[in-house]
Amino acid sequence: MATAKGNSLDPTQKAAVLLMTIGEDSAAEVLKHMGPKEVQRIGVAMTSVKDLTKEMVNKVISEFMNTVEQQTALGVGVDDYVRNVLYSALGEEKAAGVIDRILLGGNSKGLEALKWMNPKSIADLIANEHPQIIAIILSYLESDMSAEIISFFPEKVRSDLLLRIATLESVQPAAMRELNETLEKQLRGGSGVQSSTIGGTKAAADILNFVDSSSESIIMEKIKEVDEDLGQEIQDLMFVFDNLISVDDRSMQTILREVSTDNLLLAMKMADDELKEKIFANMSKRAAEMLRDDLEAKGPVKLSEVEVAQKEILTIARRLADEGQITLGGGGDEEMV
User: Fold this and answer.
1) Do residues 126 and 133 lie in contact, with contact meaning Cβ atoms separated by under 8 Å?
2) What's the number of domains the chain is made of?
């Protein structure tokens, strides 16, 4: 996002300016109600808006508030401000990855531009890059987008990329600068980078969570052939549909409120009895009875339809967890149904 000049602030930059005027605690309370992608966009904007005059700040404030305190912390210790706000809003563990993306992405417009591209276009763009470069790019992007990008690569390449992501710990500034400059030339973006902690087994597990089950099984098998312990570590970090048995009742109720009946019916078709009973127990008696009847009356369904429904429910669960609304239990081995 470009440095703000004159009166050219876009809506996201205006939101960033407003949050930076109300203090860390208040800003953190606002950010708690946003999704992870919204938090990231606001954070990037916070690091990018500079050279703000008092007139510009007052103009932004007047659009949102009738009165405002005259002193702000704009332009002073922006990186520390962003870190403190996000730690307060999301907690240290969740904020760490977001902070790395924000502080790196705010200066790396080449990488940042990829987030707005079609996954197929990204796959085509990076197809001829060195696998380690592709792994870095996939680690930087959102897990669901990276999973879709990986689907466009040959099967034998996928496991190699996931292995590289899982063993990636950090990227040197010179390497990131070179990568960003290459993308700049292709995408006509800006320049400049900072080093960042990126990749790792959690990143690999997050990406695999969004890969279709058949591909996931093949990838995991090949990873374990190369490194059994690493493969098991990745698998332990994955959160699959059967793992919903480990969430607490309140979290389960929150998830169920956002899941359509049709998707739930399909997803439960191949669920084990223990998970089914947990779901029934967290519904009203009438709703549970209706769902039981529908399950009994439901005829054969395609396995692919069940997998899609389960993936959609897991996407909802992960989003709610990222937003701090629920707590997910630990991962476990996935069984094919």
Assistant:
1) yes
2) 3
Q: Which of 188, 210, 237 is the last residue of a domain?
A: 237
User: Are 126 and 199 found together in one domain?
Assistant: yes
DSSP structure string for 195-227:
-EE---HHHHHHHHTTS-HHHHHHHHHHHHHH-
131 class by beta-carbon count within 10 Å (0-12 exposed, 13-18 middle, 19+ buried): middle
> Mean pLDDT, the chain, as a whole number?
75
Q: Is residue 144 part of a domain?
A: yes
Could you report the per-residue pLDDT of 121-133, keeping only the tens digit for each? 888 888 888 888 8
Contact 96, 109 (CB under 8 A): no
Q: What are phi and psi of 142, to 5 degrees?
A: -65, 145
* Confidence (pTM): 0.42
Write down the pLDDT at residue 46.
Answer: 82
| 204, part of any domain | yes
**Cα(231)–Cα(246) distance, rounded to whole angstroms?**
22
Quote the domain boundaries for residue 269: 241-322
Task: Write out pLDDT tens, residues 80-94.
Answer: 666 777 776 666 666
Residue 17: Cβ within 10 Å count: 23
Domain boundary among 104, 127, 152: 104
Cα dihedral across residues 215, 218, 223, 226: positive or negative: negative
